[in-house]
Amino acid sequence: MTDNIVPISFPPIYGKRIEHLYPNVRITIERITPEVAEKMLETNIGNRDPKREPLVDAIANGEWLLNGATIVFDMADNLIDGQNRLMACVKAKEPIDTIVVRGIERAAQITMDSGVKRKLEDYLKLDGYKSYTKVGSIGSALLRADTVGLTAAFRKPNGSDYTIKTQREFIRDNYETRIKPLVQPCVSVSNAYKGVSTSTVGALFDVFRKSDDDFNDFVEQLLNRRQTCTSVRILQNRLNDNAENRQGRFPQVMIAALIVKTWNAYMRGDDISCLRYRQGGAHPESFPEIVLGYE
Question: CA 180, CA 199: separation in Å to the nearest integer?
Fold first, then answer.
């Protein structure tokens, strides 16, 4: 006796059928067990860092439904989309029914979302950059400085200011000449002085590097690797005080202004006894211009 199956009428296909243009692509609906999910995850190379997956409880409680989301493999059978869902399947110890797509070009991975929005750093990791988080922070700061002005690099960026494509292209074009040389000194300074962002010192150091030898000496003093002049010692004290004040740390534009004032005194051969920057009030200061030659 056969089951009484009620046929389902699907809506018409509105788009043009183009399967013939993608002969390597195969689409199936599969029940993925935790054991199979583990094997699929073994092919997970070059993907972004996994995110905390909220689906574990839903899968464990039998609430998972076939929803049209896909697990995607490239032409070499490497997983390029769906790692978080597969990890949730393993953790929940229950199978999931899902659509599996195989044979997608690996280059298409950068267009995928997987339910967790990709950030610039996710794309930079896929592009193969080391220290991709810092590269993204510095690169975005330089892009803002180039297009809007230096002080724009010290403000918290609006995520919609530049597209991911614009930022990636800028980083690609400027990585070797401008960004890569800044990663190590910027990370060292931001680690030494909590509250100083990598993007802030990145934007400043990009300008300071035009006086190359002076820049290296200034950074070495700031990191206590060389004998420190009076001006740099005062800056260190201000930055250390700021690092310990977790309730009300300086805004980045103030930190940048203090660093520039110290740099200018260093370049002029002056010693400063007091280091301050008046950002607001009745008589706010303009952001100081950066001295690049000896005066």
Answer: 13
Crossing angle of helices 132-148 and 198-208, in 10° steps, is 60
| pLDDT recorded at residue 231 | 94
Residue 158's pLDDT band, with cuts at 50, 70 and 90, is: low
In sequence order, the 6+-apart residues with CB closer than 8 A to the CB of 6 are none
pLDDT at 114: 46
Query: What percentage of the chain carries pLDDT values higher than 70?
Result: 88
DSSP 226: S
pLDDT at 47: 63
- Tell me how far CA of residue 210 lies from CA of 26, 72, 74, 77, 290, in angstroms: 54, 47, 44, 48, 11
Angle at 203 between CA 197 and CA 205, to 5 degrees: 95
Q: Which two tokens stand for residue 232?
A: 């740099």
Q: What's the rounded Cα separation, in Å, for the pair 86 and 66?
A: 14
Give me 174's structure tokens. 């400027």
DSSP 170: H
pLDDT in tens, 80-94: 989 889 999 999 999
Alpha-carbon distance 246 to 237, whole Å? 16
State how far the Cα of 138 lies from the Cα of 202, in Å rounded to an integer: 5
Q: Which residues pair with 79 in a beta bridge?
A: 73
Residues whose CB is less than 8 angstroms from the CB of residue 275 and which lie 6 or more positions away in sequence, other chains included: 231, 234, 235, 238, 258, 261, 262
Helix H or strand E segment including 188: helix 180-192
- Cβ-contact 105, 137 below 8 angstroms: no
Report the C-alpha gap between 73 and 104 in whole angstroms. Answer: 6
Q: Where are the domains of the chain?
A: 19-118, 122-268
Distance CA 205, CA 202 (A): 5
